[in-house]
């Protein structure tokens, strides 16, 4: 019975001697390239969110129009996310990384045309900015889906969660850099061209490293049993399997909603805080604390899960604690002169919320195995983008225009400042509801780990049988 189960999970086994597993030092170079690419793409995504008011004033547009520079990432990645999953699982990791690197670089360069004075673009300058963001949005799914594929193909089982954590958390590292760098570079709107030029540097560097340094889509010898069958399921077959997998659907809805909420939080933080008198620099500091503590939480939880394999318990506890932190932020952000409490709540929200991200991606692969890693993580990302778009539109619709407030630090557009009390309370309520739903209803087996255990037992059995065969 175990032999049949192993065959169904791991695919056809070789009739020859058992395969040897091996790791290569160049896997760390691949990891570094994916990290730089992921970080650069996140920087491009949130370039304008920390300085939304100054961007609106510089390009003579409304805050809602500035928000579209972030929201376009969500909209484009919904249809292209499915294409990206197919590219990763059918064409290969190398093609996905190189293609995303070029799209990311073209996007960063296109944005710079919007501020070139000699072109005299006038009112058309915003559209160059928008088109550049669209190229970055096309790159995003390919970049974000890559960490689980890279970890599965190039890293042994005891390093997978850590490798996935490092590659995945480079995205919030880019958010951190954007939250700190944008307000520092743009004390006034006239400095926006300098900001765009600096943000193009890591995109160009990542493209050069990916194009010249990555030559193989898989290692010559796999590092683990599951890596030998990473592409075992055809794309559409895997898609059907996922849509029939109840634990996976629950994970996609809850975790996708969590990503959508973090997207909204990162994109709208400056607008939420400025109405209560907090500066752009303080909003950037909160975004930085949110991300730094998230990186720390992800690192600690990734190391813990690599040793204990307690994926479900870790994600459930972290989800509940992040929901509590979101409630604390929703209440605290509605009062003035609460800088210390806001910094603490942002830190806690990031610490517990971001910690879930790499573990949940690994859990998606575990509960959907033998579906390809690109497909299983990609569908969750597409779900998160759909939920993120709905949330961004909903939260902005719930804002209330208020008359000019002497305490407000917002650079006002033609409609005045916005009150975010109702939106942040709704966000906290949704986070709490999803956490409860996930804790109660999500249960699954670790299918990939179980398949690898069965495969190892079969290899031991074959070795014993071969040893005991008498010589003729």
3D structure, described in words:
The chain has 16 helices and 2 strands. It has helices at 2-10, 27-45, 52-59, 63-91, 93-112, 125-154, 160-185, 192-213, 235-243, 246-274, 280-308, 311-332, 339-368, 373-397, 421-441, 447-468, and strands at 400-402, 417-419. With 472 residues, the protein is mainly alpha-helical. The longest helix is centred in the N-terminal third of the chain and has 30 residues, at 125-154.
- List the helices and strands in order: HHHHHHHHHHHHHHEEHH
Rg value: 23 Å
Strand order of the largest sheet: 1-2
- Total helical segments: 16
Beta strand count: 2
Tell me the strand percentage band. under 5%
> What characteristic shape results from the CA principal axes?
globular
Average pLDDT reading: 81
Distance between the termini: 32 Å
Question: Could you describe the largest sheet, including whether it forms a barrel?
Answer: 2 strands, antiparallel
Helix content: over 70%
Q: Low-confidence spans: pLDDT under 50, at least 5 residues? A: 1-18, 466-472
- Which structural class fits the helix and strand makeup? mainly alpha
Topology:
Blueprint: H1 2-10, H2 27-45, H3 52-59, H4 63-91, H5 93-112, H6 125-154, H7 160-185, H8 192-213, H9 235-243, H10 246-274, H11 280-308, H12 311-332, H13 339-368, H14 373-397, E1 400-402, E2 417-419, H15 421-441, H16 447-468
Antiparallel strand pairs: 1-2
Helix pairs in contact: 1-16, 2-5, 2-6, 2-7, 2-8, 3-4, 4-5, 4-6, 4-14, 5-6, 5-8, 6-7, 6-14, 7-11, 7-13, 10-11, 10-13, 10-14, 10-15, 11-13, 12-13, 12-15, 13-14, 14-15
């Amino acid at each position: 019975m175990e032999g049949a189960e192993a065959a169904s999970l791991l695919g056809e086994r070789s009739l020859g001697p058992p395969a040897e597993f091996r790791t290569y030092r160049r896997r760390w170079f691949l990891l570094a390239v994916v990290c730089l690419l992921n970080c650069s793409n996140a920087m491009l995504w949130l370039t304008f969110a920390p300085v939304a008011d100054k961007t609106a004033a510089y390009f003579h547009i409304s805050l809602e129009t500035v928000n579209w520079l972030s929201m376009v990432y969500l909209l484009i990645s919904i249809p292209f996310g499915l294409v990206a999953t197919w590219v990763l699982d059918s064409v290969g990791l190398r093609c996905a990384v190189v293609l995303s690197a070029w799209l990311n670089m073209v996007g960063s360069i296109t944005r710079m045309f919007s501020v070139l004075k000699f072109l005299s673009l006038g009112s058309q300058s915003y559209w160059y900015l928008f088109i550049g963001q669209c190229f970055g949005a096309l790159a995003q799914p390919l970049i974000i889906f890559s960490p689980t594929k890279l970890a599965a193909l190039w890293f042994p089982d005891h390093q997978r969660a850590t490798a996935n954590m490092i590659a995945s958390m480079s995205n919030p590292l880019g958010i951190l850099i954007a939250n700190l760098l944008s307000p520092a570079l743009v004390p006034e709107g006239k400095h926006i061209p300098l900001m765009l030029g600096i943000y193009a540097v890591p995109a160009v560097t990542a493209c050069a490293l990916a194009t010249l340094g990555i030559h193989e889509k898989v290692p010559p010898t796999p590092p683990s049993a599951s890596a030998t069958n990473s592409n075992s399921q055809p794309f559409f077959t895997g898609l059907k399997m996922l849509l029939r997998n109840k634990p996976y659907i629950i994970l996609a809805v809850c975790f996708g909603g969590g990503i959508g909420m973090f997207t909204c939080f990162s994109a709208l933080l400056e607008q939420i805080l400025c109405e209560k008198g907090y500066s752009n620099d303080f909003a950037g500091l909160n975004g930085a604390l949110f991300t730094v503590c998230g990186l720390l939480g992800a690192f600690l939880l990734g190391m813990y899960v690599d040793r204990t394999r307690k994926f479900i318990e870790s994600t459930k506890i972290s989800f509940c604690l992040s929901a509590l932190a979101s409630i604390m932020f929703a209440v605290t952000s509605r009062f003035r002169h609460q800088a210390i409490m806001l910094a603490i709540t942002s830190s806690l929200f990031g610490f517990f919320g971001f910690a879930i991200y790499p573990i949940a991606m690994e859990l998606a692969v575990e509960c959907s195995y033998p579906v390809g890693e690109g497909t299983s993580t990609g569908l969750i990302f597409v779900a998160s983008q759909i939920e993120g778009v709905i949330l961004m539109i909903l939260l902005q619709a719930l804002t209330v225009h208020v008359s000019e407030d002497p305490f407000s630090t917002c650079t006002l557009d033609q409609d005045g400042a916005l009150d975010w009390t109702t939106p942040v309370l709704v966000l906290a309520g949704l986070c709490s509801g999803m956490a409860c739903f996930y804790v109660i209803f999500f249960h699954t087996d670790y299918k990939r780990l179980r398949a690898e255990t069965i495969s190892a037992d079969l290899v031991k059995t074959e070795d014993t049988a071969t040893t005991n065969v008498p010589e003729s």
